[in-house]
From TrEMBL:
Residues 1-21 form the signal peptide. Its main location: membrane. It comes from Bacillus glycinifermentans. CDD domains: PBP1_Med-like. Pfam families: Bmp. SUPFAM superfamilies: Periplasmic binding protein-like I (SSF53822). InterPro entries: BMP_lipoprotein (IPR050957), Peripla_BP_I (IPR028082), PnrA-like (IPR003760). Keywords: Cell membrane, Lipoprotein, Membrane, Signal. This is BMP family ABC transporter substrate-binding protein. It is a lipid-anchor. Belongs to the BMP lipoprotein family. One of its GO terms (cellular component) is plasma membrane.
Amino acid sequence: MVYRLVVIFLMLLAMCGCGQASLNGKIEKVGLLVPDTISDQVWGTKGYKGLLRIQSVYGVDVYYKEGIDNEAAIKMAVDDFQKKGVNLIFGHGSEYEKVFNRISEDYPGIHFVLVNSKAKHKNVTSIAFDGRAMGFFGGMTAAHQSKSGKLGILATHSWQPEVKGFIEGAKYVNPDILVMTDYIGQWDDSEKAVQKYEKMKKAGADVVYPAGDGYNVPVIEQIKKDGLYAIGYVSDQSELGENVVLTSTIQHVDEAYELIADEFNKGTLKGGRRVFDIQDGVIEMGEFSPVVDQAFQKKIKGLIEQYKKTGKLPEENVR
């Protein structure tokens, strides 16, 4: 009788142990690598907030390393994370693409996550933010507010989908509007971005979209001094001047990281490209400036809700 009770007790104990483990599934410990710092209040800070969200939800240990921007440093950091028991690593930028893809097969127990990159192995996932829609609505707002009929986009790379979307949205409002586009090449080259902005200003642009998270604030500060308008990028930048920033195209990187962690924990995260859009709650438009009339705000908010439901942008007059 005693033997049977002991066996039953051990079985119940094992079942309880299994139940506890299933709460966290695959996730054990999580690591974050950033090329610069978590204290920049833009891109790096967003990644760090994502790490803290994962820690809060799953109660796991999390680690981060700053200034990891070369192959040797990345390899050392990954090796250190592995020794700590990390099995989910976020490389917060495209800088990690080549190394993560190259070393991923050497770490089969770790899932690597990239941003805006190519993922070539089953344990490598690349997060992509489909910015076309947010760019479209930003372009609509810019064209509506422009008096000169000339807009400017200061993007980092030509592949950014928000660039195409911005142009389409501007043309939707005004088919004859001129959209000047230039590329910085680096996310954080503020000096070059401000210089290119000055050229756009001289060419007549009165609304400029600095689509780079490392230089958008310095550019917007200069736009404020010049009495012109801006469309914010990545964060809600209305605090830089509600009469200057007409609206912002926001990417909630922290929420995307939590969603990725959830999929990994459930065992459903696949290698390859994982795209987020407005419907996922990861991308949205920021607050509108009071200088944007209420009738237009109501119209564009209606179009955003329509896009959420249908996944289709307005196409009339877009060229």
